[in-house]
């Protein structure tokens, strides 16, 4: 997501990464990695539970999840990964965002 940050900005998208670690760890990691978008700590898994993000202890813990929420606060798409390598491609995600923007007259 970091490498494509400007493409997301061009389609008026805010990225918020929910991290299963504490706030000091998020701050440190974000600074070291030069991540330009928001990192939100979720050590107590409150947000993960709210969005029903899966935890599979035999597969490294919390599974990746990608959620698109439109400008009106409505969840429009969710992809819950089955493994740590199960991701939506950035290209496909940008297509989804453009579609939502066109559909809602936001672009």
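^ structure tokens above, recovered residues below v
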């Amino acid at each position: 997501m970091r490498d494509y940050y400007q493409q997301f900005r061009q389609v008026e998208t805010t990225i918020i990464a929910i991290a299963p670690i504490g706030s000091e760890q998020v701050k440190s990691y974000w600074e070291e990695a030069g991540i330009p978008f928001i990192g939100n700590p979720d050590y107590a898994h409150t947000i993960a539970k709210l969005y029903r993000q899966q935890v599979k202890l035999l597969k490294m813990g919390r599974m990746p999840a990608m959620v698109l929420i439109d400008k009106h606060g409505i969840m429009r798409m969710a992809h819950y990964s089955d493994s740590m390598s199960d991701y939506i491609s950035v290209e496909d995600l940008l297509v989804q965002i453009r579609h939502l923007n066109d559909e809602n007259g936001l672009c």
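The chain has a mean pLDDT of 85.
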